[in-house]
Amino acid sequence: MSQATRQLRLRAGTVDVVVIGAGHSGLAMSRFLSRCSIDHVILEKGEIANSWRHERWDSLRLLTPNWQSRLPGYEYTGDDPDGYMSMPEVIEFIDTYARSIGAPVRTHTAVTSVGTAEDGYRVVTNRGDWQCRAVVIASGAHNLPAVPSLCDSLPKSIQTLTTKEYRNPGQLDDRGVLVVGASATGVQLADEIQRSGRQVTLAVGEHIRMPRVYRGFDIQWWLDALGILDERYDEVDDIIRARRVPSPQLIGTPERATLDLNALTHRGVEIVGRLVGINDGKAQFSGSLRNHCMMADLKLARLLDRIDAWTDVNAPNTALGERERFDTTWVADSPRLSLDLARSRIGTIIWATGFRPDYGWLHVPALDRKGHLRHDGGIVAVPGLYVLGLNFMRRRKSSFIHGAEDDVHELGAHLVSYLGARPQLGACPQLRTATS
Ligand SMILES: Cc1cc2nc3c(=O)[nH]c(=O)nc-3n(C[C@H](O)[C@H](O)[C@H](O)COP(=O)(O)OP(=O)(O)OC[C@H]3O[C@@H](n4cnc5c(N)ncnc54)[C@H](O)[C@@H]3O)c2cc1C
User: Fold this and answer.
1) Which amino acid residue places its CA nearest to atom 11 of ligand 1?
2) 184/73 Cα distance (integer angstroms)
3) Between the CA of residue 287 and those of 48, 294, 331, 346, 354, what are the distances in Å?
């Protein structure tokens, strides 16, 4: 073994728990473990808040308001609670959290393999190996872009970008842009690129429409107040489907503007159906656009009815804004079903089609045939293995920053009991009983 390798190995070692990833989820778990005096380390392939530093576009702001950005023992204390953090502000928020809890983070330490070993797990990294009894996977839900295979049939003259690669309109030539996907990311990019002077076509499938503000309050406030964000994974009828629901069409701007399809049409974006094929340089769109829009309008109306009914019971004498119902989504009489990419001068296609986690390094029998982790609310099918931060993992809010707290308490309690640790209640004051 070379001197350098020996030195690297010396830096690694044995701990009770290895946490993979120093995003907000891994840090929140670290605080829990520290308070329970459980020996652990966080292994991070880049820097703290790495995804926010390197995998987001320049203009992105959180779509959750500042007052909602909170982590265990830590919350936003600035003078703009109704604002939305920019990327540098999010990085600062998470960085400060890591410092304030004294998180034991090893940066630039990429986990390349996790396998079972005697009495636990062996975690292999580019900077030595770790032996531990339990592993918490907090490596994020957005590691690999889910790009449809029809991307392979594109003419070479078309540039393609995933939303991880897109930074700003300066990356694009002056031709038109086809944005595929109309969740929060898709509508935000369509808006930014159309404003930059390029013609945008937006391919729209199932989507969730929401106003930014309703009756004077941010829509996130209503979702919180009605308990919608707290709905649990074991309470909904179809959790597989619930986990696939796209993120709502929201944007965080100082004007607290609503960004729905009508706003985009008004700005000049052309709305078309789902992209279903690319043949002979022509993009083909499904005829389902009207149905998807009607469904989104219907769900929005139901949500607003639910909010109004809630206020009648819970805030009958509170001065709120007027009840409002919004125009239905405008759809052309005959939406375009095909687009000749060359003749329409399309220069770029942006895939805003979602992401999936990367578990290529996980060598334990915890993945199903599709490569999804088999878990029950974050408790992985293999003992001693936990996951955090996935969409609707334990609650609808699980993938949000403010969703980490409840999940960490429950999974942390399960983990403490798995380790057979008996933390003193004084040291671990927030220990609650795991519910599953
Ligand atoms: C475009 C976008 C907008 C969002 N907007 C909001 C919002 O407005 N409000 C909100 O609350 N949430 C928002 N989210 C959701 C959520 O906060 C993020 O997905 C968040 O980054 C997830 O946190 P995490 O800690 O679970 O994972 P991440 O922040 O992704 O952290 C995972 C960490 O693990 C590291 N890692 C990965 N693989 C390895 C490995 N093999 N070895 C070592 N380290 C590894 C990564 O470098 C990274 O630092 C948004 C997400 C996206 C993608």
Assistant:
1) 400
2) 29
3) 44, 13, 12, 21, 22
State the distance from the centre of ligand 1 to the C-alpha of 163, rounded, in angstroms. Answer: 14
pLDDT of residue 422: 61
pLDDT at 324 over 80: yes
Residue 401, pLDDT > 50, answer yes
pTM: 0.93
pLDDT one-digit tens code per residue, 29-49? 999 999 999 999 999 999 999
Average pLDDT along the chain? 93
Nearest alpha carbon to residue 300 among 224, 225, 202, 219: 219
Strands (E), 165-300: 176-180, 200-203, 213-214, 217-218, 270-272, 275-279, 282-285
Three-state secondary structure call for residue 90: helix
CA of 99 to the centre of ligand 1 (A): 18
C-alpha of residue 26 to centroid of ligand 1, in Å? 10
- pLDDT (tens digit, 9 = 90+) per residue, 143-169? 999 998 887 788 888 999 999 999 999
Angle at CA of residue 316, ends 314 and 319, nearest 5°: 115
Distance between CA 248 and CA 182 in Å, rounded? 9
The Cα-based distances of 308 to 201, 292, 360 in angstroms read 35, 24, 47
Instruction: Identify whether the C-beta of residue 67 lies closer than 8 Å to the C-beta of residue 81.
Output: yes
Spatial separation of the C-alpha atoms in residues 231 and 245, rounded to whole Å? 14
